[in-house]
Design goal:
CATH superfamily of the largest domain: Polyphosphate kinase middle domain
Number of domains: 3
Number of helices: 19
Radius of gyration: 28 Å
Distance between the termini: 81 Å
Oligomer: single chain
CATH architecture of the largest domain: 2-Layer Sandwich
Length: 707
């Protein structure tokens, strides 16, 4: 049996995680290249590929470099060392960047021009009038903000900040020996990068071009030999020795400053940069040629998100969707009474996130509520949930909040919230040593006529009202006694490290969840071997846990039909003879970011369906606090199955994984055109309208008062 198990762990049956990520970013890029999508939406997708790539370098590439520097030679699940991964990634990412810029230059710029927006590529192309306007703009708005820095024997090479856009120049002193010196100026991120030029036609230019045009005004005693934009990416992976950090809050604040000055791991320069300037940059930043990206176009395409915001181009954007009310939770009604009538499933962003905010707001004001406990991983800039929790504490309720300080790139934000909640009188916990708390759970304890009742919200996404309009997630509101008991145990475990003796309904990582998933997959395998119906449908963001993949291979080989809906990384391969011929993998990349985790198991006709905060990744199953919860009410199970089935039907936004390891859009020939995200929007709108009509048609019977 052991040999059989090892067969499923053969490295040839796995895709390297980082290569799979590159394929994911290609899928996002394919949306930017899709001629059927409105032009400004295509700009947005191209911008997303750029910000994705930045984060990938700062975290994934950085950690591979750390491994190489530390002499770490252990191979990954696909049998590759860190060094081999870096080499392969170099090729793949250079190819991806070339495709990003050919999409921008050849496809998007000409279309913008056709649609009445001219992007001035180089300041040399400006007309006299436009140049005069921009020079004036430079004097009044830009010049006062700039800090030009020259490098000579008395002034060392300046610290170049992570992700900042800079102009590098070679200069010579006007009265001197004509020796080449380096000078630089940061393009200030506090000013708009896109500058509109007034006139009959819509014209824009990028800020760095205006600065480059006027750079001689910054270095008055020098002749400018050449000027080129450059940008660097640094290692931003925080290393925190939690056991030794007496105050985690202070330790993280200290590490955040280091993020600006980590080791340089990528240098982007303008194509055709002066070789002497490039040589100087490489030497000062200690960066090799393989990490230099020569760019044919503007550096840092994330500015396209700002371009998307330009007014007057609505016809080139997708129609904005408004999240719909939840029929079972009409605005202004008692949310606790509604939950007592039965569990309620929420499907964001098709349905509004407001009930989740209202759940906490009502609890904060309700005199019968005794305590509110909640985990927070990422929240929005001006979070109504934080305000409600603070209000609850001020109203004298017991409020315990676990704020995860280690939520990557949200550390600063979360430190601010943690301090604010403490000031309001909340009991704030900063996660567990060595683990990130990624679970999404809220518990409200309420005194009622028949005793204490616990109300719980469980979700697959963050308590972030802003991203809830963009991310697809599901949530459950329940006052089930069994789940209420488990929720109390979760918070006791987080605040006092007490592990419960047993769980009623919930499964938690890092101790129990992986075994639960392996058990559920194994049960389907056993059913198939016994000739019983066996099927798995699983939807998640990423799949790269070797034990889970091996279990899926074993189940598929036994005859289980497995459909996986995996948005991002997928290390599993399909179509391996005798191993994964029963497995299909699809990725949906659309207007909303697919974020919900839903797991369906046929279980010989007694189907079970679960939702979770966790993906099938080692970090979620072994290094984080995550929650898996069952959905048991038949009508809610049917809703979740409907979500999965709609996604399996998608012929517009779905990309299918091929046995060759590539992703291809669904072949639509002979199939109806079906976009699952559009279908969910229409369904939510129709349900809300129907519910409103029912509400309006209710017959009003006045109460009769007896003396």
């Amino acid at each position: 049996m052991g040999e059989k198990k090892n067969l499923y762990k053969n490295p040839e049956y796995y895709t390297n995680r980082e290569m799979s990520w590159v394929l994911f970013n290609h899928r996002v890029l394919s949306e930017a290249r899709d001629k059927n999508i409105p032009l400004f939406e295509r700009l947005k997708f191209l911008s997303i590929t750029a910000s994705n790539l930045d984060e990938f370098f700062m975290i994934r590439v950085a950690s591979l470099k750390d491994m190489v520097n530390a002499g770490y030679t252990k191979k990954d699940i696909a049998g590759m060392t860190a060094k081999e991964q870096l080499e392969k990634l170099g090729e793949q990412i250079h190819g991806l960047v070339d495709l990003q810029y050919s999409t921008y230059n050849r496809s998007l710029l000409p279309l913008l021009e056709q649609n009445g927006l001219h992007v001035v590529k180089k300041h040399e192309q400006l007309s006299k009038e436009d140049a005069a306007y921009l020079d004036k703009y430079f004097e009044s708005n830009v010049y006062p903000v700039l800090t030009p820095m020259a490098v000579d024997s008395s002034r060392p090479f300046p610290l170049i900040r992570n992700k900042s856009l800079n102009l590098g120049a070679l200069v010579t002193k006007k009265e001197g020996k004509g020796e080449l010196e380096f000078a630089t100026v940061q393009v200030p991120s506090v000013l708009p990068r896109i500058v509109e030029i007034p006139g009959e036609n819509r014209k824009v230019i990028l800020l760095e071009e205006i600065i480059e045009r006027n750079i001689h005004k910054l270095f008055l005693n020098y002749d400018i030999v050449c000027v080129h934009p450059f940008r660097i990416m640094r290692n931003a992976d925080l290393t925190i020795e939690e056991d030794e950090a007496a105050d985690l809050l202070k330790e993280i604040e200290k590490q955040l400053k280091k993020r600006q000055w980590g080791e340089a791991i990528r240098l982007e320069v303008e194509e055709g940069i002066d070789k002497r300037l490039l040589k100087m940059l490489k030497k000062e930043l200690a960066i090799g040629s393989e990490a230099v990206y020569a760019i044919d176009g503007p550096l840092d395409l994330t500015f396209l998100m700002k371009m998307y915001g330009l007014e007057g181009f609505d016809k080139l954007k997708a129609k904005k969707y408004t999240p719909q009310p939840v029929p079972k939770l009409p605005a202004g009604e008692d949310i606790f009474a509604a939950i007592r009538e039965g569990d309620i499933l929420l499907h964001h962003p098709y349905q509004t996130f407001t009930p989740v905010v209202d759940f906490i707001r009502q609890a904060a004001k309700d005199p019968d509520v005794l305590a509110i406990k909640q985990t927070l991983y990422r929240v929005s800039g001006n979070s109504p949930i934080i305000a409600a929790l603070a209000q609850a504490a001020e109203n004298g309720k017991q409020v315990s909040v676990l704020v995860e300080l280690k939520a990557r790139f949200d550390e600063e934000n979360n430190i601010v919230w943690a301090r604010m909640l403490e000031k309001a009188g909340c009991h704030v916990i900063y996660g567990l040593v060595g683990l990130k708390t990624h679970s999404k759970i809220t518990l409200v304890v309420r005194r009622e006529e028949d005793g204490i009742r616990r109300y719980v919200h469980l979700g697959t996404g963050n308590y972030n009202d802003a991203t809830a309009k963009l991310y697809t997630d599901v949530g459950l509101l329940t006052c089930s006694e069994a789940i209420g008991e488990d929720a109390t145990a979760v918070f006791n475990m987080l605040s006092g490290y007490s592990e419960p003796l047993h769980w009623n309904k919930l499964s938690l990582a890092p101790l129990w969840l992986k075994d639960k998933f392996l058990y559920l997959i194994g049960r389907e395998r056993d059913a198939a071997l016994a000739g019983k119906p066996a099927r798995i449908i699983a939807k998640m963001n990423s799949l790269c846990d070797a034990d889970v993949i091996a279990a899926l291979y074993e189940a598929a080989a036994a005859g289980v039909k497995i459909d996986l809906i995996v948005r991002g990384i997928c290390c599993l391969k399909v179509g391996i003879p005798g191993i994964s011929e029963n497995i299909s993998v699809r990725s949906i990349v659309g207007n909303f970011l697919e974020h919900s985790r839903i797991f369906y198991f046929e279980n010989d006709g007694n189907d079970e369906i679960y939702c979770a905060s966790a993906d099938w990744m080692p970090r979620n199953l072994e290094r984080r606090v995550e929650i898996l919860f069952p959905v048991e009410k038949e009508e809610l199970k049917a809703e979740l199955l409907h979500i999965l089935q709609n996604q399996l039907k998608d012929t517009v936004k779905a990309h299918l994984l091929t046995p060759e390891g590539t992703y291809e859009k669904v072949d639509r020939r002979g199939k109806e055109t079906f976009n699952s995200q559009d279908a969910f929007c229409k369904e939510a709108t129709a349900m809300a309208a129907e519910s409103k009509e029912t509400e309006n048609n209710r017959v009003f019977i006045p109460e009769t008062h007896h003396e």
